[in-house]
Each structure stands twice: as structure tokens, then as C-alpha cells.
Amino acid sequence: MVTVSPEAVTQFQALMDQVDEPLKITFQNIHRGYPTETLVRFLKARDGNVSKAHKMLMDCLHWRVQNEIDKILSKPIVPTELYRAVRDSQLIGMSGYSREGLPVFAVGVGLSTFDKASVHCYVQSHIQINEYRDRVILPSASAKHGRPITTCVKVLDMTGLKLSALSQIKLLTIISTVDDLNYPEKTNTYYIVNVPYIFSACWKVVKPLLQERTRKKIQVLQGSGRDELLKIMDFESLPHFCRREDSGSSRSSENKNCFSLDHPFHQQLYNYIKQQSLISEPIQPVKQGSFHVDLPEPAAEGTEIAKTIESELHKIENRNGLTQSLDDV
What we know:
The chain is of the alpha/beta class. It is built from 13 helices and five strands. It has a five-stranded mixed sheet, covered by helices on one side. Strand 2, helix 6 (about 120-145) and strand 3 form a beta-alpha-beta unit.
């Protein structure tokens, strides 16, 4: 675990005090009143090195300004049918809070198909969820508990993971790179559940490639992970795929399915973005596909991991013959 010294934070703060607008404004949108905690996150991401952390944060601020990230929550993905298609194929949602007050985000890794919209729509949606988490969810949780809450918990469901996931690796690497470079250290713990053989095989070769601080955050749980997760959250906050009646399936009915556009979290998010769009652009509606974010070049670590996963999946495919027979495992 990286230990950040008070001296490093002081040096970092002195460097950031020299930043002029518009970078100062977007930095305020990042820290939301908790600048020290934000500096610590970037320092942890660069192993406590002030110079490297400063460069990372400055690159992040420039990226935000160049791509108008501060305005992204006023740029709805329209029409609604397109956004529903994104939600049906990019399975992510918020199921509740841990007992410590951390938001619990669920991700349907295995059943996400990413085949109903453009890459830009998926990246835009992912960044919007990040920004809504950081600007609305986390500040609200901090106010409720009277202390800074700046991270979340993620539960990753591997149900349905198939060799066809090979086609998603490039997009997933792009999204992961966006997070690594611009939203570092925002996840406290990753819980991985409903693990099939394919994941287990890949995990063995990918795990050694991860940085130590990342490895320590990842816990692979048995089965649906229900019993372990109930140690840190109430039943009502469990993602639907971790509940006994729903375990083994990332898709569920009613409002329990936090991936669905009909879930309260997504309804609140979508309504918030629509309201913000009316404030910023009350006359001209946003055209479909009008908002693009520059896609980053995957970092060396991310590229290596993606190549390793591809290689391992190909090995599995070759050992077992036809892809279709593996997809049924």
C-alpha cells in the first residue's frame, strides 16, 4: 500500500496553487471541496512521486478542458431509444451503499455486449456515470456522513463470460485507460463474482501483470459472493446478481436490476442530464452523436494486459476446438 506523506501533499498543493483558469475551474469540479483527498489519490496513482503525480493531474485537467468534460452532464445521449440500447448492452448501475457509506456500483462484465451503439456513445456514457458519481453521488454521501467519501465499491459479475469477449477488449481497454489516467484511485475494492472457467484461466496470467496496489483491491469471491458481501452491505444494497433468487444471472426483472434504464439510479441520472441540457442549451436540442471525447492511447500496462488476455483466450479456443462449444460452458 502506498503511503503518502504530508510533505508530499504540501508540495503538490503548492504546485496546484499556481494553476490558472480554466484549469483551476475544472480542478474544482474534480475535488468538489476536498482538494487534499484528490491530491492524495493522484499521489497514490504515481507511488507518492510528486513530480509524476503533478504531471498526471495536469494532463487530466488539460484533457477535461479540451474535451469539455465539465459540460458532459448536459449532453444526453439521444434519442432515448439509443440510450436504452446503451444501457442494455453496457451493463453498469448503482445498487446501493456499503455500511461505511460508499456507493456500490455493479458491472455486468460477462453479459455486456457493447454492440448496439458507437464506441463514442459507450465512452460518453461511462464518463457521464463517473462524473455523476463524483459530482452528485459522492458529495451527497459525504454530506450525509459528515466526512469525505471519495471512493466507491465495485462488484463485477462474470456471468456469461465467453470467448466472444475478445471483440470487446479494445473498447474495455480504452475505458480502463480513461479511468486510470483521469479518475485514479476512485474504487476502494473490486469484488469479482460468478466466475466461470474462462475468467479463472485468464486471471492466473493477468494477475501478475497488475500493479501491487491494484491486486490488493481485487477480491475474487466464491459463487455469487452473497455471504461475503453481506459483511459490508445490507441485503437491499446487494446487486441483483448476488441475491440468492437472482444469483447466476446479470439480467433480472423489476427495479432490482440496477443495469436497467428503469432502475431508480438510471432514471435519476438520465433526468439529471436532461435537466442540465435544458439549462445549458434551452433552445437547440442536442443532436444524436454530437458529443465525442478524444479516445486515449491505452497505457503500456493496459495494452500488455489486453494482449495477454487475447493470447490466453486464443489458447483456450485452440485447446477446446470451436468457440461455440466454449460459449456453452
